[in-house]
Amino acid sequence: MSAPTSPAELYRHSLQLLLDKNIAGWVELWAEDGVMEFPFAPPGWPRRLDGREAVASYMRHYPDHIDLHDFPELRIHQTTDPRTIVVEMRAVGRLVEPDGPLDMTYVAVVTVEDGHITSYRDYWNPLVVQQDGADFAGSTR
Exposed/middle/buried for 99, CB within 10 Å: 0-12, 13-18, 19+? Predict the structure, then answer.
């Protein structure tokens, strides 16, 4: 694939990398000083990751916890800032430990500059993990 040229293309590419379990490739999409935030993170979970290395550390074991199968219902909205998109999506797959289905909706606000993610605010639903007792990547529990 040629290099993504818009935030929406880069985001779609990032989802394919997650489906392919190519975490190293996914992390390479990040700016060195990129920031990932989880405004709804429950106690004991990270609320903010500063820099590509922190994102890499958080995602390192992601495939050991989550086996993604698809992202149906993907909607990408442009904003008045051409660098920023708002994403609504659903992820389906399997939780590896404990074994069980994964079906979660997300809203993300993503900013891309010079072909790299500089800001990613992930508004995921913490009630899903609290109900299932899942141990997602990056949990400090």
Answer: exposed
pLDDT in tens, 70-94: 999 999 999 999 999 999 999 999 9
Q: Is 2 inside a domain boundary?
A: no
pLDDT tens digits along 10-37? 999 999 999 999 999 999 999 999 999 9
Residue 32 CA, chain-centre distance (Å), reads 17
Please give the single-letter amino acid code of residue 72. Answer: P
- On whether residue 19 sits in a domain, the answer given is yes
Q: Give pTM, 2 decimals.
A: 0.87
Pairing type for strands 66-70 and 48-50 reads unpaired
Looking up residue 86, the CATH number of its domain turns out to be 3.10.450.50
Q: Which domain holds residue 35?
A: 7-132
135's torsion region: left (phi>0), alpha (psi -120 to 50) or beta? beta
**Cα(44)–Cα(47) distance, integer angstroms:** 9
Contact 126, 41 (CB under 8 A): yes
CA distances from 132 to 44, 53, 71, 90 (A): 16, 29, 20, 17
